[in-house]
């Protein structure tokens, strides 16, 4: 492990970038989940009224549910990472995830002091993003996009899924944005690769 991993130095510019980046990322990502699952949406309500007395209602429910917690939300999170990475990647590295920060610490690419500060900033930014979402909507009943384990899955399924998807993200981050052997063309497009990794991980059930 590199000596830099034991450094207690903290760059406050990195901390501020991580906090702001995480706040906007959470606001956009969970906002997509919340607003697309809003039962008061005019389009959804009108459509429901049109098909409420037909056999299409179950299909409608599946489509609206999948649109809110499936492809739409996954795209929001994936594109959010791409935008953030291109915006603050040169400032803090755009970790925007405690798991990514820990993986960079373990690989010797982030000092322990900076890692701790980044994780605190990320958690604080996530809270700010949720507060912004709470303040810009009346959808508090929707849980502000909080996750839960589906009825078809066990807690063990969910934990294993999180481990695999987190590994995919960290693996892509290291091989595209961190690995010195990565060609310039790949390194320059790292935000796209990382964003798509988040998109794929978010798309999985």
Automatic annotation (TrEMBL):
<feature type="transmembrane region" description="Helical">
    <location>
        <begin position="186"/>
        <end position="204"/>
    </location>
</feature>
<keyword id="KW-0813">Transport</keyword>
<keyword id="KW-1003">Cell membrane</keyword>
<dbReference type="Pfam" id="PF00230">
    <property type="entry name" value="MIP"/>
</dbReference>
<feature type="transmembrane region" description="Helical">
    <location>
        <begin position="112"/>
        <end position="134"/>
    </location>
</feature>
<comment type="similarity">
    <text>Belongs to the MIP/aquaporin (TC 1.A.8) family.</text>
</comment>
<dbReference type="InterPro" id="IPR034294">
    <property type="entry name" value="Aquaporin_transptr"/>
</dbReference>
<feature type="transmembrane region" description="Helical">
    <location>
        <begin position="69"/>
        <end position="91"/>
    </location>
</feature>
<feature type="transmembrane region" description="Helical">
    <location>
        <begin position="12"/>
        <end position="36"/>
    </location>
</feature>
<dbReference type="GO" id="GO:0005886">
    <property type="term" value="C:plasma membrane"/>
</dbReference>
<dbReference type="InterPro" id="IPR022357">
    <property type="entry name" value="MIP_CS"/>
</dbReference>
<protein>
    <submittedName>
        <fullName>Uncharacterized protein</fullName>
    </submittedName>
</protein>
<keyword id="KW-0812">Transmembrane</keyword>
<dbReference type="GO" id="GO:0015250">
    <property type="term" value="F:water channel activity"/>
</dbReference>
<keyword id="KW-1133">Transmembrane helix</keyword>
<feature type="transmembrane region" description="Helical">
    <location>
        <begin position="154"/>
        <end position="174"/>
    </location>
</feature>
<dbReference type="InterPro" id="IPR000425">
    <property type="entry name" value="MIP"/>
</dbReference>
<keyword id="KW-0472">Membrane</keyword>
<dbReference type="InterPro" id="IPR023271">
    <property type="entry name" value="Aquaporin-like"/>
</dbReference>
């Amino acid at each position: 492990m590199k000596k830099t991993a034991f450094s207690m130095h903290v760059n406050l510019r990195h901390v501020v970038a991580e906090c702001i980046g995480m706040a906007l990322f959470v606001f956009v990502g969970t906002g997509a989940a919340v607003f697309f699952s809003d039962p008061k949406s005019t389009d959804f309500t009108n459509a429901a009224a049109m098909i409420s007395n037909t056999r299409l209602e179950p299909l409608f429910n599946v489509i609206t549910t999948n649109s809110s917690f499936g492809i739409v939300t996954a795209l929001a999170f994936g594109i959010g990472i791409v935008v953030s990475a291109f915006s603050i990647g040169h400032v803090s590295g755009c970790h925007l995830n405690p798991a990514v920060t820990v993986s960079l610490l373990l690989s010797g690419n982030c000092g322990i002091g900076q890692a701790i500060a980044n994780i605190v900033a990320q958690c604080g930014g996530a809270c700010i993003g949720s507060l912004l979402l709470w303040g810009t909507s009346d959808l508090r009943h929707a849980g502000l996009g909080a996750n839960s384990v589906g009825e078809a899955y066990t807690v063990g399924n969910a934990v294993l899924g999180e481990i695999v998807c987190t590994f995919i993200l960290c693996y892509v981050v290291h091989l595209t944005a961190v690995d010195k052997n990565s060609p310039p063309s790949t390194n320059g497009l790292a935000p796209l690769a990382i964003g798509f990794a988040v998109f794929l991980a978010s798309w999985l059930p």
